[in-house]
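Appendix B: complex inputs.
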Amino acid sequence: MGSLLSACRINVEKKKVEEERHLRANDREYNLSFMYANNAIKTSKYNVFTFLPLNLFEQFQRLANAYFVFLLILQLIPQISSLSWFTTVVPLLLVLSITLAKDLSDDITRHKNDKHVNNRKVEVLINGDEKWMNVQVGDIVKLENNEFVTADLLLLSSSEPLNLIYIETAELDGTLIKYTISILYISGEVRCEPPNNRLDKFTGTLTVRGETFALDNERILLRGCTLRNTEWCFGLVVFGGPDTKLMQNSGKSIFKRTSIDHLMNFLVMFIFGFLAFLCAILSIGNGIWEYQEGNSFITFLPRADGANASLSAFLTFWSYVIILNTVVPISLYVSVEILRLGNSYFIDWDCKMYHVKSNTPAQARTTTLNEELGQIKYIFSDKTGTLTQNIMTFNRCSINGKSYGKSSKGFTVSMIKKIDFSWNSLADSKFCFHDHKLVEAVKSGSPEVRAFFRLLALCHTVMAEEKTEGELFYQAQSPDEGALVTAARNFGFVFRSRTPETISLVEMGVPTTYELLAVLDFNNVRKRMSVIVRNPEGKLTLYCKGADTIIFERLHPLSSKLMEVTTEHLNEYAGEGLRTLALAYKDLDEDKFEEWKERHHEASTSLEDREAKLDAIYEEIEKDLLLLGASAVEDKLQDGVPQTIEQLAKADIKIWVLTGDKQETAENIGYSCNMLREEMKEIFIVASNTAEEVREELVNARKKMSPESGDEPPIEKSRFLGKKSQVVEDEKVNGEYGLVINGHSLAFALQKDMQLELLRTACMCQAVICCRVTPLQKAQVVELVKKHKKAVTLAIGDGANDVSMIKTAHIGVGISGQEGMQAVLSSDFSFAQFRYLQRLLLVHGRWSYLRMCKFLRYFFYKNFTFTFVHFWYAFFCGFSAQTVYDEWFITLYNLIYAALPVIGLSLFDQDVNDRWSFQYPQLYAPGQLNQYFSKMAFARILLHSCYSSLILFFVPWAAMCDTVRDDGKDIADYQSFALLAQTCLLIVVSVQLGLDTYYWTAVSQFFLWGSLSVYFAVTFTMYSNGMYLIFTSSFPFIGTARNSLNQPNIWLTIFLTTILCILPVVAKRFLFIQLKPTINDKVAPRKVPRRRISTRRSGYAFSHARGYGDLVTSGRFLRIPVKTRSALFPHTDTPVADSTPQTYRTIYEGAQSP
Amino acid sequence: MKNEGKSAQRPDNTAFTQQRLPAWQPILSAGIVIPGFLIIGLAFIGIGIGLFLTSQTIQVQEMDYTGVEKDSPCFRCTIPSNLNCTCEVTFSLSTLFTGPVFFYYGLSNYYQNFRRYGVSKDYNQLTGDTRYFKSRSPEEDCSPYSYDSNNNPIVPCGAIANSIFNDTFELYQIINGTKKQVPLDGRGISWWTDYNIKYRNPSPVNGSLAKAFDGTVKPINWPRPAYELDLTDPNNNGFLNQDFLVWMRRAALPQFRKLYRRITDGDYAAGLPAGNYSLTVHYNYPVLSFDGRKKVVFSNVSWMGGKNNFLGLAYLVVGSLCVVMSVVMLVVYAKFKFSDDDDA
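Resulting structure:
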């Protein structure tokens, strides 16, 4: 144990100083000298001996549990103890043991997993079979097909012809390809980065016999993957066990908290203050009482020696802290966790968010944010792969100033028929293109056209797989590349295979092999990629493709004319929403290239700043390019995207699309997915090159939208929990506007002094599109809104470039699509299709929010009511901290009697069903405005509880005053009174719960009435002879239930209290529905005959799909004005069409009024 | 096979997981709420009238005998030095006081519900478990009436027992100037469960209850030990003394009445006839020091227990309010509904 500990310590120290990792293949002695972690992992937290103490220690660090203990200590002081110890111990034990059990089962699972994983066998080159946990850094291991990757490995060789391997990551269904270094070697030294958690990056060098090779991420095989379609491969262990990237990545998630959490914490603090206030009043009361009455009452009850009124008051303060502690509902936190977990499961279980094609159900990866889904005000969306399918089709191209391909505007005769590619035996049958002219151009041997397709066939990183002759499969890193290579293939430039040094093509039926000299890969900064190849004739050529602006900057002056024509074409393509790339080439000089290559090698093997150095080297050679043309691929919108956006917009959610596309492409997508609409008053486009111009444009746009808006932003300064924040208030706008801002302008606009200007203008618009944004800017935009708007933000994306944005936003949603799992892994919720977002927000989010708020309101109500009765009783018992209820009732009230019903309420309640939620997106508005639970709502609860508790105390008080049983015996005794008060209370809160429930399912009703029955059963049991005879001093209420619950006046009192507590609520609600109906009241399903619909104007039938929603929103009787917008899409294909039909109250009264 | 794998992750399509459990949505529609209020209102008025009338039929004769006023008969007994003081309270009944008549004593401003007072007892001891005669559980509850100054254990311990009400009463009907004693029945005035289960006497030692109390002392305020509480009836002693049981069932509120005796026997089985009565009070219990009051109450009962006008009146008021409310709601509903229609 001790040695293990010290080993750990050394390890920790080691980690601190490790700046670079050195290791030698198969040299265990050398590697062990560094004390690198071996491959054993330990994810479990406890062992048999440490479990109880450690776990309890952790649990008592929580405020809630610590508070329990504090109470318990108070209760153990006899002078203070106003309640038996068990009232605190029982709930505490329950909470502790639930957590304990959960942690225990989790840890057992982890232990099992650890053991299982650590004992897996793998073949190590020097030792033969080894258990995983004994594998050391520097070992060479042999993996076989379908085996899990043992550790983070440096790939050495594989069975496949080109030293490729295929892997599948655990979460990802697609196969990925990795290159390997082609030399199998037994010795060698690796220098690389220290362990870190970056999955997408690796830098290191490998030195074999004095030769140094650069190592990058491509050659690293990460633990957590599985080998597929590869017979075997060898790998060198670089990082083992806890140092692997997988382990480094786990358990370091940022803890997001919802606004309700913050409010709850604030309220709990307030309640603490309130508790102290109540106790202070009561202790002062006690002081006065002791002074006036108690002094004389000592005839019957002498004080303890040395006690006087002030000491008594002091003790009473703490006694009342014990009694009134139920105002700080500690079980609140446990219950909140339970119901959030439940609602997360409902998301996981939702069939309508399950994507059949990709076999992906929706997943709530974070279970603590559900209710915030019902409060979203801003959505930040990526475009590619999120709004679109990220499945690319090659649609248009411009070659040497000539445009090919079908235009969306019209067809020429030559384009009607799909091209027949049968002349090309290697063509992909699924590919279709409609312009015959292009085929003719290829066939006729136009050099530019041929060069164009040759470029497409050469300049990429696609892998080809040819299982049987002529059947080619392409594995592409990005769908764009796949589409372009496939296009080249069909037009006769078939990419057939590649080795690290060569690329084999079939050019118009002639097999040709190019020598691949360098790949200047793509990244987000460069926005281009190039290859340098030597053709069979020995000519060196650089082929480059990339973003048009980038390429155009690097063109040779000779191409300037062609550039103009191509730019026109590009604009046209972008206008159609296509993704464009410019293609260029350059012939290279042999000498110059050799010299460049040397420096390139130098840069690529350097450990520091390798990327920057490489970029600079690349920059040198990618200049003076000759333009070939441009390609345009179409990325089709996902199903249901326009409808979803329309729905979300109706729910008054503002959508900002942040995309890397060109402005024109983005605009067009904006139109096609219904973000930008023709009926918008104006769409502002901000595309300027200086800060001043940008500011001017923003201000102008704002003035246009709202002429009266001032120069100074309407800032509401608030301090919340010590955090100073500047909140920009919403400004009124007439009509709808859109805003498009390009990356360049955005960079200016995001500067400190212009941020607020951008925010004001952008937030006044219905839709905002930012184009050409970098991942960092995405996060900045989200951060800007998050910081200065009192609104909940949601970011949705699918790719690695969305990760920062997803992590920044209040809620991150990942779409599991074509671009891997990185977005999903950092997200809070994930699913396969953008259209599920509307269900997530409008149905699950809304329900979760509603349930959470109802739960909180009810929970506070029930506990306040419960507690306040004690407060009133204090005035009748000499402020002696005498409880009103039986101690057992106090113990079990929150634990049993009132626990399940409220859980039932908060898991099953729904105000309207999912179908109706879609019909009326306006129902989403209360969440955005925080209407269901706020400080105001809390104040109302406080008053309501006050009223209820007054009734609950004074009605029994008056009814029991001087009364007797029907046989003349005592009934106004303390025990009967306690029983009466607690029964009244429980019935009142139960009925109140029923009243608060909109959706009476069998389960929740069972919980409700079951709990009441349990109460009576438990009460009769605890007050029975047997219990008294066994536990005499614990159950002194013997016989009380029998003696008082058979009295009619007791039941009449219970009935009266219930009615007095409930009817005013009913009356108030009814009157509010009539006088000040909320959106909910308006759309609540009613059983009103529908026939009057037909008496409406004749056009109504046709506009059925328009939905009542518009009519509702335009009605004068709406509390929250929501802007009218017409529906463009019928709701026939909403995913809820198969819901059970209901009869609903029709809402048409206000239709014509505005 | 492939297909199985394909939809392997599809969530179960059940009413529960899809949140489509069959349910009923209660709606506060006018058709339910307004008639509901009316019906509840009328029902309440009905119950209220019933209760009120019942309550009116209950006869109550209440007399404060604390002796605060100088001219009240018991004034002289309020002087603390006046031990074994007896005073006489007279009253007359104009009509027959229908039987069975219950005879209560009442105390006010008396905090039997004071927490420290309330816990000052030992249930284990009171079940007759002699182990707890010498020790206590919990130890401190009975303090300071746990041990006397010589450290002898007090049984029954605690403030409640110690402060037992010890005024006694004799009731006479004055017929033509002569006093005819009204027989008072003190049997069965406590709860059945208290008498039979909750409280038990220690098993007599050698047939003597007193021996069972050996080694203990009586509560300080008591004139006699527990086993001699009722000298007239040997079965009414120890912890099973009816008056003791009634007292031990402590009151919920500072003003309370406790059953003293019933008048059920002999000539008075049908009630107290009209006439003059005299109540002899053996005045022992001091309440003036804490501004308390003592009274005696004669009352009969109905199905709803003792006289309490509150319940009847409350029902009447609430019922009327419900009716009024239903009218208000009807008006509001009509007004707003019709105005909506006008718009349309």
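Chain A touches chain B through 104 residues (CB under 8 Å).
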